[in-house]
Amino acid sequence: MKKYILSASIVVLLGLSSCGDVLDIYPVENNTTDQFYSNEYEIQQAVMGVYARLGRNKTNTDFPTDFYYQASESRSDNLYYATLATAQRDQVDLRNFQVTDVTGLNQTIYARLYQLINDANMLLSKASEEYSRYRAEAKFLRALAYFELVRAYGPQPVFDRPITNNEARQMERQPIEDAYKLIISDLEYAAANLEPFYDEEELGRVGAVAAKCLLGQVYVTMAGHPLLDNQGYVNAEKILKEIMPEAKKRFAPDYSYIFDVNKENTYDLFSIQFASGNQGLGSSLAAYITTSGSTGTCFPEWAYQGYNQQGQDFRVDTLLVQEMKNARDKRLETSVADGFWNTIDHGYTTEDSIEHYVVRSIMVKFLTKDNTNNTIKAWNDYPLNYPLLRPADAYLLYAEALINNGKANEAAEWINAIRRRAGLPELDHIPTMDDIMYERRCEFLGEGKRYFDLVRSGKEIFLNTLKTFSDHYGHVANMGASVPSEKDMLLPIPLTVMNVHTSWKNNLGY
Prior knowledge:
mainly alpha; two-stranded antiparallel ribbon; 510 residues; Serine Threonine Protein Phosphatase 5, Tetratricopeptide repeat; 22 helices
């Protein structure tokens, strides 16, 4: 699949060339696309172009780095900001709850999601029903984009076809229920028209199991803030129950296997694909998990570190690290390192350790665990895929639905399977939502899920959790951060978009 994405770069460039004066939201009018989509090969290339929006996308950073790590994980209580940056950093503004409608990273995320939607809409308007496989992939990716849009930005215009610039200017923000109707319809189509999984040269392409898992996540999200949809958990239980046998088959026996570059596409449901070798297909995520300046050595010795990093000092919550360490949680070793040796010559005595070993809680699950891997050619050329959906998602989403549907005893099987793999004892009580949220926090540490878990838990839990966390690390007093508030449950609509849509009202507090 990775070579297909590379060869599909022309499709991405076609989409980029069509932006016009509504650059950040609806790049739609493009005469050159009329000559494309003339046969199955070109339609397949167009599908790869839609996938490519989740990767580097001809830019320096990829979507998981921008959205799931910098704009999501960094704003949760999993990461704290430890040392003042020497220059303006968008990730810092997001962590400090000081993002604005002109923050560049925020604009980039919003634009990329609509570029993905536009690409999918174009393909769906051109590809006939006989190409149901490719249409299903495009619909899954469109559903994913709309899901992230409404989770991060609230109500959005909803359109399922290419539109003109003039039509785009006249569109209004619609209730999020409208977006969810399209998301659900798209995922149901994808689930009905895809094989469970794809292998060999098609490894990495989405299958029906991933579509159903994402649909389950959508329903669970709808059950929480702000919709509080009473039917959400009922629907989630029904759709997730269908995939649990398949999820079991792909449940890694060892947590570390999930983040082993040699075992990719084996223990996931759907991952965003990356590859080293200076082809523009590498991941940039490793560069944003550093805990020192751009010229420092800040990774453990087993990690490849031949290129400078991006230089924000973000560290994993030490209270959570200590809790996992006390519990002897096996996930901790894969996810977090406790420090690194500095570049000064040293031995390995106790005295050397005190002087030269820098103790810091570093997120390492996305690092390449091979310090001889010279296929990595740049700071944004790391090979490890980003697991967007994996069996543990299905396990914990299904368990959450069962608990909220009055079947907590049945939920224990799925929670305990995850705990056993982590080396933890099985629960000695009927599972609760607190158990779910704790396991999700440890299981998906660094994967961009915690922030949205806090949002869907409601305003009170969101604010209490983040205020307590911020106070503990002195974010306001020592780092110049703002106190977390209700406005931080959404990101602002970028000013470039608001200038076009002058009738829109931005999100609360922006």
